[in-house]
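Key idea: predict the complex, not the pieces.
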Amino acid sequence: ETGVTQTPRHLVMGMTNKKSLKCEQHLGHNAMYWYKQSAKKPLELMFVYSLEERVENNSVPSRFSPECPNSSHLFLHLHTLQPEDSALYLCASSQDRSGQPQHFGDGTRLSIL
Amino acid sequence: EDQVTQSPEALRLQEGESSSLNCSYTVSGLRGLFWYRQDPGKGPEFLFTLYSAGEEKEKERLKATLTKKESFLHITAPKPEDSATYLCAVQAGGNTGKLIFGQGTTLQVKP
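Result:
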């Protein structure tokens, strides 16, 4: 596999469920990101990890919990979500955090019932 | 406040009809300006990075340019397969890697 892979591609969950989104990058990059893309809104950064250390939390509610066990894998743990959390969740990676392009996966389309 | 504004929101072209997309930005200490293409149901695909005013990059029918206040994505003789949403993003000074995106321009090229 090459590039950035996200699973699952689609997820439907109730407000009381707990689920996790997975991202894996095969590019040898050192930084990984979670973004949220809602309809009619620009992509919005959620979290940044560099060498498995969280370096940015963009005021994201605690019902979203990221985890980065190594430089190739990134998870987003979800619990007690709200209907407004329905969106496309995109993972990205880059060589470093200083001006290098970020490469994106195809996202997980999340729907909250 | 760092900000990115793209125009127009939507653009319809006939095949072969050249045009330009605009990305205006205000940012404290530009580390890079990025152009992406996004197809429906897919993640953004990286196209170009521009780092300083006067810089230009080309790829097939696309050419990106940069000034101190804005960037243009010129599309020459577009084809239907160029139809997509084009996203512009900037990375400001500091070292978080945070990208600030515009809302995108949705391009439709009719045969």
